[in-house]
Amino acid sequence: MMEQYKSDFFNSCNIELHKIAKESGIKTADMVIIPDLLERGKRFIMTWLRDVPLKEAFKNDAQMFYYNVACIAFCGGIAYADAWDKDIAQIKTGAVDTILASQRNIPALAADILGLDSDGAQRLHQLEDSMFSRFLSLMSEYWEKEDPRPFLFQGLLAFFQTGVSYRLNK
Predict the structure, then answer these.
(1) Beta-carbon neighbour count of residue 39 at 10 Å?
(2) Rounded to 5 degrees, what angle do the CA atoms 43, 2, 77 make?
(3) pLDDT tens track for 99-118
C-alpha cells in the first residue's frame, strides 16, 4: 500500500511541477517520460543526497539542502535529456553518468546546455524557486509521517522528470 502512496505522490508532484514550468511561459511542458532516464535519475539523486560537501554546507538547514538537491535534480534531468536527444548511446554506455558525476555545478551546466544568457539563467532559477515552493506545500502533510523520506525522494524525482520534459519540449 505504501508503494501506491509514494507513486501517487510522484504523480501529483510531477503534474504540479510541469504546470509551473508551463505557466512560466519559457517552454511548453508536456510530460515526456523515458523509463531509462527515470532510473538514471534515481541513482543521480541518491548520489547527491549522499554528497558529503553538500551535506556539510547545509548541515544546519535541511530546507536549503533539499532545495539544492531539487535544483540539481531538475538541471540533471535537463542534462540527461540533452544527451538522450543528441546521442542515445551516451546514455546506454553510461558516459553521461560519468560526465555528470564529475560536475559540481549542475545548474550552470544546464544553463549552458539550454544556451541561456545570464537573464535566461536567472529566469530558470526563478522557475526552480517556484517549483520548490509548490513542492514544499505538497510535502507539508508528509513531514509528520513516521518516515517522510520516501515522499521526499519521489518529489525530488519529479524535479528530475520535469527537467527531462523541459529539455525535450524545446
Answers:
(1) 10
(2) 25
(3) 898 888 999 999 999 999 99
Q: Does the pLDDT value for residue 29 go beyond 70?
A: no
- Give the per-residue pLDDT at 35: 87
Round to whole Å and give the CA distance between 114 and 128.
15
* Of the candidates 63, 44, 26, the residue with the CA atom closest to the CA atom of residue 161: 44
Q: Identify the three-state secondary structure at position 102.
A: coil
Identify the DSSP state of 143. Answer: T
The C-alpha atoms of residue 149 and residue 117 are separated, in whole angstroms, by 36
Q: What is the average pLDDT score of the chain?
A: 90
CB atoms within 10 A of CB 58: 16
**Helix residue ranges, H only, 24-169:** 35-49, 52-57, 62-86, 88-92, 95-101, 106-113, 118-139, 149-168
- C-alpha cell belonging to residue 132: 520548490
Between 170 and 116, whose confidence is greater?
Answer: 116
